Amino acid sequence: MKTAKLDKLREQIAAIKAEIVSVEKAQLTTPEIEARVDGFIQEMKRTVANDVLDSAGTLTYINQLGSGAGNWPLVGNWMHSRPAIGFAMAVTLNPEAFRAMVLEAALKELNGGRQEHATGRVELVAQLSGKLRLLERDEEAEVLRLEESGIDALRRADADPAVVLGLAA
Questions:
Q1: Global pTM?
Q2: Residue span of the structural domain in which 169 resides
Q3: What is the sign, positive or negative, of the torsion defined by CA atoms of 151, 157, 159, 160?
Q4: Same domain for 142 and 108?
Q5: How far apart are CA 55 and CA 72, in angstroms?
Q6: Helix (H, G, I), strand (E, B), or coil: what is residue 116?
Q7: Residue 115: beta bridge partners?
Q8: Tens digit of pLDDT for each residue in 131-160?
Q9: For the chain, how many structural domains are there in total?
């Protein structure tokens, strides 16, 4: 048998559990998405600086391989063995267009969904989990009260065993 109090507690528990899932699965905020894209662009620029531009000095040496791509065989070899260099160069040469294109695609994915700061997410889940624990204790107290008065009250299948056993602090 259920009571209005037990029903209300269970509704609140379900709402808190849904909120925890919502926070955990929330997408990053728009500024955090922008920072990720900007960080990626900087990483691509470093890749080009480290792998290509730092090797520009090899152009000053005599090369016996002839003309064309043979004038800078090191970069030619990279293009064949490390295609990511070409991508990094494309991003580096036009970072504004890349940023606009990627942000447009990423922001479309938000589609009005929930956004939460990555840094505050853990604290919010912990706060909600604390509220959940208190509600579950109140629920267990109500179940015990009903049982003591001779009313058979079923526990939720997903009730926290630590709370049911009185082990939760």
A1: 0.66
A2: 1-26+117-169
A3: positive
A4: no
A5: 9
A6: coil
A7: 27
A8: 999 999 999 999 999 999 998 888 999 999
A9: 2
